[in-house]
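for the recovery benchmark. tokens below, seq after
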């Protein structure tokens, strides 16, 4: 678990299905995601996958749910994927639009980036965020 000032970033539980489905099933959210909209069944399957995911080698992805510390409500998710290219990683996020404009995604990304740099990377290994047509992606290299 990663704690920030307003969020707990944690692995998902089966009971999180309603909160995750609330934003993952929305077309206005899915248009920015390669996975498209999720059915309730797909949401449950992905939660099960996220719950056991490990970040041990290139290709692995760790997805943590973002939970408000004050209400314990799940408001989004942030993921860290170890890519094959140059021992780099990508950070992505998706949040419920009801919580946009509060800086929660930035806070979640910052928390994951700090944890990743502390655990795997060496100083000076962060490259500039890549500009894409979707959500911002930040690369972390030096995972040795």
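predicted aa per position
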């Amino acid at each position: 678990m990663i704690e920030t000032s307003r969020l707990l970033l944690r692995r998902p539980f089966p009971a999180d299905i309603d909160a995750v489905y609330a934003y993952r099933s929305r077309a206005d959210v899915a248009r920015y995601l390669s996975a498209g909209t999720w059915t309730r069944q797909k949401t449950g399957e992905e939660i099960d996958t996220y719950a056991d995911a490990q970040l041990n080698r290139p290709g692995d992805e760790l997805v943590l749910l973002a939970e408000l510390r004050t209400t314990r409500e799940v408001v989004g998710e942030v993921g860290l994927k170890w890519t094959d290219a140059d021992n780099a990683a990508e950070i992505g996020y998706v949040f419920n639009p009801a919580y946009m404009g509060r800086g929660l995604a930035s806070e979640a990304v910052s928390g994951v980036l700090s944890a990743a740099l502390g655990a795997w990377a060496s100083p000076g290994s962060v490259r500039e965020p890549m500009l894409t047509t979707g959500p911002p992606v930040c690369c972390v290299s030096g995972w040795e």
